[in-house]
Structure formats: C-alpha cells, structure tokens
Write a structure and sequence with these properties.
The complex is a heterodimer of chains A (193) and B (276). With 193 residues, chain A is mostly helical. Chain A is built from nine helices and no strands. The longest helix of chain A is centred in the first third of the chain and has 23 residues. Chain A is extended and about 50 Å long. Chain A starts with 9 loop residues before the first helix and ends with a helix. Chain B has eleven helices and no strands. In chain B, helix 1 packs antiparallel against helix 10, helix 3 crosses helix 9 and helix 10 packs parallel to helix 11. The chains are: A mainly alpha (193), B mainly alpha (276).
C-alpha cells in the first residue's frame, strides 16, 4: 500500500544529531532503500524490529523535532503580537495533543449517526482536523496572523537594553551583578540627563 | 470496500481522490515567495514544527510501551513485538526502550566523534541485537523470524495496475489532509533549515523558494514510494549557488508539475461532466 508521500519529520532530528545534511548522503540512503525494496529479506529484517526498541529511539528523535521547533520560534526576538498568537494557537494545539478526546468524542460531534455519506465525510473531516494537534494549532495561528494588525516595532529604550545585557553577562560571571546593574542604571540616568 | 468494491477498486478510487486533492496543494507552491513569507513567518512555522514534535512524542512513547495497537487496552496482548504477547507497559518492553536510550547516552559519553554521529544507528542496532538474543518472562522471543523467512528474496513492487476511480465523500477529508500536509511540509522545511546551521534570517530571503519547491515536489498527484527529504543544505558560503539553484529547482519542478497535472486535471473534468 503506497500512498502519496509527504515530508518525514524524523529526518530533521536525524540531521541535527548527525550533522549530516549533504545531498550525497541522501543519494547513498536512496540506494540502500532501493536495495531494501528489491531484496525482500532485507526489508523484512527491518520490519521485525520490536516496537519497544523502535520506540526508545523514535521518542528521542521526535522530541528533537520539538526542540528544533522551539529553536525556530525563538530564533529572533518574539514581539508582543507574535507571543499573543503563539499562546492562543499553542493552547489549542497543545491542548488537543495532551487531551485527544477534547474534540474527538461523540458528545461534541456524533459523526457515526449521520446517514448521508457526504455529510458524514464533512463531519469526519472536521473531527479529524480538530483532533490533530498541529493542524488545529497552525490553522488558528495562520488565521490570527492574517487577521491581527501588524504591530509597529516597539521603541525599546536604550536603558532597558543595556540593563538586560549586563544582567545576562554578570549572572554567569559576577556574583555581585546587582551592584553592576545599579551602576549601569546610574550611568544611564546620567546619559539621559 | 464497504460498498461492494474490491480492494483494487477501493485503492484506485483513493488514488483518484488524491490526484484531485493534490492539485489543491500544488496551488500553494505558486504563491509568490513574498506572500508565502507573510503567510508563514518563521516563528509560525516553528510553532508547527514544535507541535508536530510534541504530537509525535506521544506516538513514540506508545510504541515504546509495546505498540499503538495495545496502548488503548491495557489487558490486551501486544501484537507487534514478535512472539512476545505481554500487555502494554510490561517491564520488559520499557526496559528494551530504555536500553536503546541509555546506549545512546553511553555512546554520547564515551564514543569517538564518528561514533557519536552514528549514535542513532548504533543504539538501534544494539537494542535490536539484545532483543533478538533474549526472551521475555514466558520465554517468547521479541523478534519473530517468520516474516523474514517467508519474504521473497527479490520483489518488484511496480508491476500492478489499479483501476482509477473516484470516491466523493473522501474529497473533503483529503483536502483538509492536504492543508495539514502543506503546513507540515512548511514546518519540516523550516526545521531542516534551522538544523543545518543556515541562519533563520536567510529563511525569509530564500527558504520560501525551497518551501515552494518542496510543496511542488511533495504534492505530486501520482502515488509513489515514500521519499525522504532531499533538499541539500550546505554552509553559508554556498548561499549564492543555492540561490541560483533554488530558482531552477522551482522552475523545473513547476514545469514538470504542469505535465503531471494534466492527468488529474483531465480526470477532474471527467468528474465534473459526470455530475447531473
């Protein structure tokens, strides 16, 4: 049974772990997969891997994807509007993932009793979308991103930025960072004046 | 099959539905990069990657405990762990998964740089090896060898022809699945970018081209074997080359898509004609 293909998320985790993203490595993999496809014994060897063994590895790889996502999300400074959208869409997305029966229950939408096949299909599709965490999360985020007006770049006072940076630097190195913060404040006040 | 169709006919109808649904997804690849960037900013794509990761962790933990088939029913025996028929979450199963994960940690601790690069494969194969030479409390092996023995030495998958049909109720679910797949492709492309040390600022300039290409590439209406993610990503010194290639990849894929589309488009016209 071969259905139309889509991208395979696990590979992001593999790239981040192995640090290999070369196209040549991809070609080499393709040759191996071709051979596994032709030589049935090879393919069967990999299909009989016990589920717990596979699960121990794939859980780790899947969590790598989540970490990549956090990395992408926070790769630049998230402003207030983006934070708002992330929080709203995240509450739908993470909520559906942690409690799958939230939308996928017969009290919310009772699809099996619908007789018309077309209406049943629509109902099933709605439930399918609502009970897929990343679908509902991303759809809400897409809509909010399109609807909410763009925020003008906030004027960040020089004062705050300086204090923030000093704070970061001195937290690690200097236990007396409070003193240096206070000094900085004093300096900034002077600058402003 | 419920409606008196044979498996081949049902599969053919499914292929027909996918052919039509794929046109929809391919349309996304024609959105100009400027708009694509506005629709999918990098932080939004990051949210997609994060949510995909979180939901997949659940799937991973399910197979760790013994497989998705017995995760919902704690008294049933798991059927995907070879001859072993223990219920979900048996200590043996948890231990096997933990063995793989701790091997991974040990390789990371003591392995050479090369070994660390292969830690995934080493841990998986070591766990597989231990699972194949041990047995559970009932003396049943975790690895069932009969599928390997029964498998044909050489198989060809591409010699079957299915009767293409169409199953209307599946159209809308497929369409939504394609939207989901589009979001996922976008997230995966961004994730690949992030993990290959390419700056995210670069995403805004260039990634949209590759996202376009990926969307066009993966929305091929004709079913084919699973594909892994082929976009090559080299360090920043190759940016200009990538930029030029990005253009050509997008253009060439689009032109090939037009050819591939003509088939589902004809099918779509036939379907429109068949309505009363």
């Amino acid at each position: 049974m071969v259905l139309p293909s889509t991208t395979l998320s696990q590979n992001i985790g593999i790239i981040s772990l192995t640090k290999v993203a070369s196209r040549k490595a991809g070609y080499a993999c393709a040759i191996w997969m071709f051979l596994y496809g032709i030589f049935g014994k090879f393919g069967a060897f990999f299909t009989v891997i016990p589920q717990p063994v596979l699960g121990g590895m794939s859980t780790f790889l899947f969590c790598n994807i989540a970490v990549s996502g956090i990395k992408v999300m926070t790769s630049h400074k998230v402003n207030r509007r983006e934070r708002f959208i992330l929080a709203i869409s995240g509450s739908f997305g993470i909520g559906t993932i942690t409690v799958p029966q939230w939308f996928n229950n017969t009290n919310f939408l009772n699809c099996p009793v619908i007789e018309s096949p077309a209406a049943r299909g629509v109902c099933d599709a709605v439930v399918l979308t609502l009970s897929t965490g990343y679908a509902v999360g991303c759809l809400v985020a897409l809509i909010l991103n399109a609807v909410l007006p763009a925020e003008e770049d906030e004027e960040i006072p020089v004062h705050d930025v300086v204090v923030d940076e000093t704070h970061k630097l001195t937290m690690d190195a200097d236990p007396t960072h409070k003193v240096s913060l206070a000094e900085n404040d004093a300096e900034n006040e002077e600058l402003k004046a | 099959m419920a409606e008196g169709k044979s498996f081949d006919e049902a599969y053919g109808s499914l292929m027909g539905v996918f052919m039509v649904g794929a046109i929809f997804q391919s349309m996304f690849s024609f959105i100009p990069p400027r708009f694509l960037r506005r629709i999918f900013p990098s932080w939004l794509a990051g949210l997609g990657v994060f949510l995909i990761g979180v939901s997949l962790v659940g799937v991973g933990v399910q197979s760790w405990g013994g497989g998705g088939d017995c995760a919902g029913n704690l008294t049933a025996a798991c059927s995907q762990v070879g001859d072993s028929k223990l219920p979900f979450g048996s200590p043996e199963y948890i231990g096997l998964g933990f063995l793989v994960m701790s091997t991974n940690v040990l390789v990371e601790l003591f392995g050479s740089p090369f070994m660390r690069s292969c830690s995934v494969a080493i841990a998986l194969l070591f766990g597989y090896f231990i699972a194949s030479v041990t047995a559970d409390r009932n003396g049943d092996s975790y690895v069932e060898l009969s599928p390997v023995k029964a498998a044909d030495p050489i198989v060809f998958l591409w010699v079957k022809r299915f009767p293409i049909g169409f199953y209307t109720p599946a159209l809308l679910p497929t369409r939504i699945a394609y939207v989901v797949s589009t979001i996922e492709t976008n997230g995966d492309t961004t994730g690949t970018f992030a993990e290959t040390q390419l700056l995210i600022e670069f995403y805004d300039k260039q990634c949209s081209f590759l996202t376009q290409s990926a969307l066009a590439c993966f929305s091929q209406p004709l079913p084919r074997p699973p594909v892994t993610f082929p976009i090559h990503l080299k360090p920043a010194r190759n940016l200009m080359r990538l930029f030029r290639e990005g253009y050509w990849v997008t253009l060439s894929i689009h032109s090939s898509q037009l050819l591939v589309w003509s088939c589902p488009a004809l099918l779509f016209l036939r379907i429109l004609e068949s309505f009363p």
